[in-house]
Inverse folding.
């Protein structure tokens, strides 16, 4: 009986360890973070993560074996997605745990933002008050496919790659709050710097759509908010 209990525990924790092994490579965590924004092809993921298609495919196969992602073949391409909402919660909790427990995470962030005036993040409660009063608008600078998958309700979409060409669409008499994929995504940082250079009042929201949804705040799907 004692051996059976031990075998049971060993077998269970071995399965738990599969998750840890699957996310033991930094690029796999980044791939999961990207997939939280919506379905993507291997080629698209490889480009965003700065790795080869072959390398991305190998990482995704490991994540798939641990049931963290699901994939489907469409013609010549394989499209991946997060397996379910539980995986998104896991990745978000992992990021928060690292931020709270590992000093280097905050130190790296402080070092990156040093000397970049106006890149401090706005508090979501303050943002909601400003949007409600009409003194601020929310700008989603992710690729349009990610916006259509899900976005903060009421946000307008101008992907970073189009921002300079479409900057006249933005009001000069309101503060612009840019957001992207979360605290470690650089799209909003680049957007705020560009807007500052053009004379706009701009600040970034470091929350992702997943963060917004997790706190029960409104999100929307589809082309229109």
């Amino acid at each position: 009986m004692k051996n059976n209990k031990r075998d049971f525990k060993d077998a269970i924790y071995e399965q738990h360890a599969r998750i840890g092994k699957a996310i033991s490579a930094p690029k796999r965590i980044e791939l999961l973070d990207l997939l939280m924004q919506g379905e993507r092809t291997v080629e698209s993921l490889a480009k965003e993560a700065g790795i080869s298609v072959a390398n991305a495919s190998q990482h995704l196969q490991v994540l798939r074996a641990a049931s963290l992602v699901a994939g489907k073949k469409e013609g010549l391409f394989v499209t991946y997605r997060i397996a379910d909402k539980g995986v998104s919660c896991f990745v978000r909790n992992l990021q928060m745990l690292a931020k709270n427990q590992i000093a280097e995470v905050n130190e790296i962030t402080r070092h990156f933002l040093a000397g970049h005036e106006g890149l401090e993040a706005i508090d979501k409660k303050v943002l909601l008050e400003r949007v409600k009063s009409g003194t601020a608008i929310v700008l989603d600078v992710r690729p349009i496919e990610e916006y259509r998958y899900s976005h903060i309700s009421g946000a307008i979409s101008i992907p970073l790659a189009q921002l300079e060409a479409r900057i006249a669409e933005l009001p000069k008499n309101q503060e612009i709050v840019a957001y992207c994929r979360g605290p470690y995504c650089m799209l909003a940082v680049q957007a705020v710097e560009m807007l500052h250079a053009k004379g706009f009042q701009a600040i970034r929201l470091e929350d992702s759509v997943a963060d917004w949804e997790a706190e029960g705040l409104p999100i929307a799907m589809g082309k229109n908010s």
In short: Residues 2-22 form the longest helix (21 residues). The chain has a mean pLDDT of 90.
